Amino acid sequence: MKEHVPHPDLPPPISNVGVIGWLRSNLFSSWLNTGLTLLASYLIYLSVPPLIDWAFLRADWFGDSRDACNSGGACWVFVNVRFDQFMYGLYPAAGYWRINLAFGLLVLLAIPLFIERFNHKGLLAAAILFLYPVIAFQLFAGGSFGLEPVETTKWGGLTLTLILSGVGIVASLPIGIILALGRRSEMPIVKSVSVVFIEFWRGVPLITVLFMASVMLPLFLAEGSHFDKLLRAMIGIVLFQSAYMAEVVRGGLAAIPKGQYEAAEALGLNYWKSMGLIILPQALKLVIPGIVNTFIALFKDTTLVLIIGLFDLLGMVQTAITDSNWLGFSIEGYVFAALIFWIFCFSMSRYSQALERKLHTGHAR
Amino acid sequence: MMKRIHAVATAAVLFTAATTTAQAGATFDAVKSKGFVQCGVSTGLAGFSSADDKGNWTGLDVDICRAVAAAVFGDAEKVKYTPLTAKERFTALQSGEIDMLSRNTTWTLTRDTSLGLNFAGVNYYDGQGFLVAKNLGVKSAMELDGASFCIQAGTTTELNLADYFRANKLSYTPITFDKSDETVKAFEAGRCDALTSDQSQLYALRIQLKNPESAMVLPEVISKEPLGPVVAQGDDEWFNVVRWSLFAMLNAEELGINSGNVDAMMESKDPNVRRVLGLEGIKGSGLGLDDAWAANIIRGVGNYAEAFERNVGMGSPLKIARGQNALWNKGGLQYAPPIR
Amino acid sequence: MAEPRQQECAPAQAAFWRRPAFRAALFQTLLVLALCLVGYSLFTNTLNNLEQRGISTGFGFLSQEAGFGILQSLIDYNETHSYGRTFFVGLLNTLLVSALGIALATLIGFVMGVARLSGNWLVARIATVYIETFRNIPLLLQIMFWYFAVLQPLPRPKQSLSFGEAFFLNNRGFYIPGPVFEQGFWLVGVAFALAVVAVVILARWARRRQEATGRQFHTVFVSLGLLLGLPLLAFLVMGMPMSWEYPALKGFNFRGGMVIIPELAALLLALSIYTGAFIAEAVRSGILAVSHGQTEAAYALGLRPGVTLRLVIIPQALRVIIPQLTSQYLNLTKNSSLATAIGYPDLVAVFAGTTLNQTGQAVEVIAMTMAVYLTISLSISLFMNWYNKRKQLVER
Q1: Could you tell me where this protein is found in the cell (chain A) (predicted)?
Q2: Domain B27-125+226-330 has what CATH class?
């Protein structure tokens, strides 16, 4: 008896697989899509080649004055010459190593936090939060251990951006937690004070806050009390940021099931113990992505300090492009600043998304 | 728990007590105790106050700050600078954020009275003018009907412009920026037809243009702009120190004392010179300063003529003639009361 | 026998300072006291400082003559008007840029959010690049970029780009013909208002009929007809009481017509492109949050894709989108205060800038400015909460 041998499957039509199939299903699946594809291609054709041409092919990279820029493309010489200022502001060049050391130390300290098997993360995090700022401040400001003192008015560039956002996030977290707990409190006065505080800071623009902090604050304090302008800007940023942080933390607190609260109470833990040992550790873990997102927002918002006369990265760029020797290169300056900000923000947002995915494995759809 | 609450309450009470009782200490005492003068200057105006890329400040206005520091501490370097935009400057002074403001600020009645400020003198007599592109073909401000103007926000310039055009029944469009850098950039880009500011600033801003020859300053001067250092009201001693620091520079020029010959002048027999140098007369006691206060100013900063020539005069890129800013006995307006 | 023992076991009454109620009361009293103390000391310090330094106080300055000009004003303003009026000029400019920005950002956001989920690979990529680029660059930088780098290289007035001799583009702005309303134009306005009322009534009637009988009524075309037809009719009846005023080059600048100044354009572009990127993300997450089963169920019921999107997907997605949209609208409004960096005369630049500087009354001016932003923020969130509640009610 002849065994039935089925014909082998025919290969799918050439138009459904491979490059052509991909093109058909992703770019030309309907008349509308074809039109959109053509339009998009045209837009890309219009914008990308001239951009590459300007930024790379016809750009000038090296030199030390504007005479080096004669190819008609971007003049990266400008950025090159001013690079140190963009990074360190007016910090004396002899002290650059101190800034490098401080940030290098931070990176070194932070690396183990990302290693899964490292066991003392809590301890290390505490060191970074409490010990590191002291060391970093000594390095930046100097005045002890034989380091030359450097006034805060000379801090600037990317360094200042990082300092402001770092201090902003670290200091606003505890205040934010307290405000979030206050807002969920059952004590009516505590609750309303927290609500008013949070809504006030969330309702006003950061510029007015910075203006108040930079030139009006001494008016509210007793005469003779005087503190550093940078410090005052920081206080303004921290108060502003803590309101946003409070809302993020509140989201985390709300996401903890009621059973956890009740279980903590059933164990006889008092309020602070149940919050500190049961609720907050879970809630904070939940809101890490939210905190990173707030950090990104803060990182971008620090550019506003240039309006009150502190020179962060954008402030330094803004100063450099008004230098009469380098007039006419504002696009290069802005593009460079944008690139730096973009690299920081984009990598942080990727990190936060990855974290979100990792933390949400339990109830993924 | 109770302990903690106690601690919080105590801290709150202490904080309040500390903030309400620390009323003592006027500006002068505060300056002496912290060891430096906090001086408000412009965010950058060539010749008057500008920082180089190392953050060192120079300029005619900066020299007033340095003179005050030299008078108080004997060291012209004991100054910290706060760069301020025109919009921020009075608030910063009123709040006590800065001890003195030396930022090409025009002396007016409103500012002297309701803003709570005291003008210590005039270190530059100025007037408002216009900067236009040469190819605009304009020879007089009266031809600027319908033009748009780049101005720095929060200045008397803004008000004078409005007055001038209203009085002459002309129309105009103001475009205001926070910093003088920005006005010049916008002017260069063609956002406005003319840039208006104090004449001295126009010369300073003109050299910031890519091609200074392409722009010209119109002959009209539409206002009086006496510019000078300012302090907050409420501390007359401090006011005197700032005022007489400026006067010392002017008197030194009048008497021919400069940073080069100040030590030789110590031997002078002229009683006027000897009084300035603190060798006889009231010396520094009336001001609460060291006897050598004026000598320190001359040593550290120089007399008014030196400061002028170095920063805005022939020794600088601005090349402004003394004109109204010459001494009273040389056809100008600068007149300082005698030190005696 | 058992009773005494039970009494022994009963919890001993805690000392009064250990009772939660007492602690709560004590803690709150202390909080109030501390706040009062801090508030009182700030208040007296400020008053002392103001008095000691001879700074004027009070709101009397609002009626004084301002004496400075403002670049753009929606209401009649010149230098003889009062400081109080500069407040309204600034406020209206802020509201203008915020309202335009919100509209434009929503449009960009929805288009880009949908485009990112598009089946078209290229379109989806472009949308992704747009979103990831613009939301990761500081807004202030974007504003300055648009203003100093893109808009200023435009030609000078004499070399304006002209479109049909009616529209002119140069570095002083974009000049467009302005309508001049003549006598009798009021009727057109009235007709439009009537049309709006009629459309609302019609929509209600159509919905009620559909709920009662299941029959649909196509309101779209009828509404459009009403909205356009009625005013047009009034316009014709009154003998076309409107003409166009064309901008023309006179002296240094164009005069006549309406102008969109570069400051407004730069601010608007930056605000809407920046916020649009965030809205796009909100839209995407909203659409993704609607389970695919909903779409399949709608198809199974025989609904067409367009109807599915409109009646099934969007109403559900909106519930996720709206809260995020609210906070983006709030951010946009607050961010419009960055106008001061490029000289657009908004509330912060005019009132908290020039007016503050001329009068020196920082406390009053800043308090008024902050109060305005707080009011705007609170009203936007109240409105959006109300809208959100309405949308949530759809859920049964």
Answers
A1: Cell inner membrane; Cell membrane
A2: alpha beta
